[in-house]
Structures are given as C-alpha cells and as structure tokens.
C-alpha cells in the first residue's frame, strides 16, 4: 500500500468512527484533523469535501459488515445455523457492536434522509444486498430440503433483517441487549416453523 493509500485509509477509518459515534452532521473537518493528526491540506488532497469522506467511510463500513456476515457462517452446517450466526453478530449491540457506534445503516437512516441522497442510496443498496444474501441462504435451505417450500425467502429475509435493525436500535437506546436477544430467540423459533 502506498503512502497516499495509507493516509487515505487512515482518514476513512478514523472518520468512520467519528461519523458512526458522533453523527455525520456533528463531525467537522476539524474533528477529522484532530482524530487523524493530519493537516487540512493532507485531507483535501485526497478528498474533495466531507461528503466524499462520508461516502468512502460508509463504503468501508459495508465491507466490514459483509465480512462479519461471511465469517460468521463459516463452518456452519445448516442454513438455520448460518442465519443464527448472522443474527448473533449484534448480540452485544450495546457494548461491542462490529463497528464502534452501532449499526452504520441504522445510524445513517435518519441523517441521510433528504439532506444526503447519495448516502441514502448507498445505504439502501447495502440493505438490499444484505437481504439478498440472507435470501440466498434461505433458498439454499429450501433446495437442500432443510425448509419447506411454504417459506417465502425474500419476504422472510426482509422481515428478519428489519426486525434485527429495530432490535439493535431499541437495545442501543435502552442500553440493554435484551431486545436483540428476544429477536434472536424468535428468529430461531420462526425458522423452526419451516424446518422439515
């Protein structure tokens, strides 16, 4: 990795933490300068503006979450085990989420509404990719005979991920992981209704 790339990566990594913990609108270029120890010129040589840093940071967040999802299903034998492993990524949403500050998708949902359409589009596409990933697992379960054909993989994947996003939000709001734990428990029960 070149020095240019290393500095860009440092800006992205430090900015992601700032954006995801403090908020996009609250985080200033000065905050990024303080966090990275870089002068303004070093940042602006690599990024035109804060919006470019935000987009690069949340693209990185998407890669991190995708990596967590794929790693969580390694060495799992059944589709139920795989889906449950994905659910367990946010088991400690309050104190130890995969990315400091919580779920980046959830955190950007409000901030990116009409003020930042590029980020809103990016995060909506990321959520759809997550749904497709879980849907593909559920289809695999139908095809291999683990689940009945009564399952609707797309709508179930959407339901499971939407429920988990809500549980993450509620757990972080209340500073209690019980809501994530409840969602995980009922995810397993719901999958069991389709198990042959």
UniProtKB/TrEMBL annotation:
Q: For the HTH tetR-type domain, which residue ranges apply?
A: 5-65
Under the GO molecular function aspect, what terms does this record hold?
Answer: DNA binding
**DNA bind region:** 28-47
Listed A to Z, the keywords are: DNA-binding, Transcription, Transcription regulation
Q: Which InterPro entries match?
A: Homeodomain-like_sf, HTH_TetR, Tet_transcr_reg_TetR-rel_C_sf, TetR_C
Q: Which PANTHER family does the entry mention?
A: HTH-TYPE TRANSCRIPTIONAL REGULATOR LMRA, TRANSCRIPTIONAL REGULATORY PROTEIN
What name does UniProt use for this protein? TetR family transcriptional regulator
Which species? Halobacillus litoralis
Taxonomic lineage per UniProt? Bacteria, Bacillati, Bacillota, Bacilli, Bacillales
